Amino acid sequence: MSSSSLAAAAAAAFLLAVAMSCHCHVARGWGGLGVNYGTVADDLPTAARSVELLRAAGAGAVRIYDANADILRALAGTGVPVSVTVPNDAIPSLAAAASPAAVDEWVARNLAPHIPAARVLCLLVGNEVLSDRATAGTAWPSLVPAMANLRRALSARGLGRVKVGTTLAMDALGTSYPPSAGAFRDDIAGAVVRPLLEFLNATGSYYFVDAYPYFAWAANHRSISLDYALFQGEASTHYVDPGTGLTYTNLFDQMLDAVVAAMARLGYGNVKLAVSETGWPTAGDADELGANVHNAATYNRNLAARMAKNPGTPARPGAEIPVFLFSLYNENRKPGPGTERHWGLYYPNATWVYEVDLAGRRPAASYPPLAPTPPAPDQDGTPVWCVLAGGGGEAANETAVAAAVEYACRQRSGTCAAIEAGGECNQPDTLAAHASYAFNAYWQLFRKAGGTCYFNGLAEKTTIDPSHGSCKFISSLD
């Protein structure tokens, strides 16, 4: 047998062991798809009304990003399972060995008053903690100790049925393709993830992953079929893992099995898997391909129908996997690219962005027809600029715009030389004109390093060239 054949056989045996070990993974207590209930938005409905909307959508569970007392009170008596989140910045203090009283106080203040009236199933300690390398010396080593302390505090108060976990993004993996090669990043695998998996395994809790096929597809749209990402690919779009021979009919399963392989590689192939966030954006910036209502509705409706059949994944057939969609509302105050503000099932006025039955029982033909899919621009060939939002009309806050311009211009010497006196973009000599130039100069300079065209909502992307006369605005293609 060749070395490549030996490697393939080893990988197949490795994933077969994972598959055989997980038929018992029944997510007791969960219903249909859950929903993430974020509140970073203006004029949202009340908590009570929001719970009504969750139930109208057929949500089987809800996750909140804090321990919001109003939301927990609104959930009281409904029987809807809820997962509560501990803020990232609280993790180091909750991990301190000398602070058991502080841990008990957190539980007493945030959870105990609401149980059992609210059906709290999970306490999630932090949100994508291992994606923030700035906290590598603080939150990372504190994560598992904080989880252990909270579990002890819960048990001491008779709340031991609440599972303790944390959410991790797909970037916790250093390798995810092919799925059988899934492996955690070297900087976290031994120091953080192995103890985490040991804790989850010992307590019967879940590995919660934020899995977004949208981002994986958008970054590789020339090689990954959109239909494959939307759960509607034909056989020609399916992917066969060369290491295991397992066939993947959609990108979601492929991503989850990469996590399954990574856990097994560290010796914890039995840990249960849950999806803390997934979904598809309904809108985005000019350069964010595929973000539209048609694709979002297609993704979420197909996901709901699929998960209602309890298919598991190719590596874990039949395993019941709790899944939470992101999100209940469009959240207009979230920073970052345009997609960040367009994941909701509902607008803040409580009307549908698009209808979906999260229980997965509604026939596809019964939904109102969707608008045709917008024509897809060539993401790699369409120039994009960053300008002052709305053209700088009277509604613009001049003080805020001036401060944003000052920030953009001082990030690197010469960034705004063209709008200084005598510069080729000094005219028209208005704050609005100068803001568009400054925002664009900053974004083009720093976008590949994570700089955004946002400026607290003052900026927006455009495919209309704002250059004029001898004033040249650099584009995303320059």
UniProtKB/TrEMBL annotation:
Organism domain of life: Eukaryota
Signal sequence, renumbered to the chain: 1-29
Any coiled-coil regions, as ranges: none
Subcellular location: Cell membrane
InterPro entries: GH, Glyco_hydro_17, Glyco_hydro_17_plant, X8
Residue ranges of domain X8 in the record: 384-473
EC assignment: 3.2.1.39
Membrane topology: Lipid-anchor; GPI-anchor
GO molecular function, one term: glucan endo-1,3-beta-D-glucosidase activity
GO CC list: plasma membrane; plasmodesma; side of membrane
GO annotation (BP), single: carbohydrate metabolic process
Gene3D superfamilies found in the cross-reference section: 1.20.58.1040, Glycosidases
UniProt entry tagged with the keyword Cell membrane: yes
Catalytic activity: Hydrolysis of (1->3)-beta-D-glucosidic linkages in (1->3)-beta-D-glucans
Protein name: glucan endo-1,3-beta-D-glucosidase
Organismal lineage: Eukaryota, Viridiplantae, Streptophyta, Embryophyta, Tracheophyta
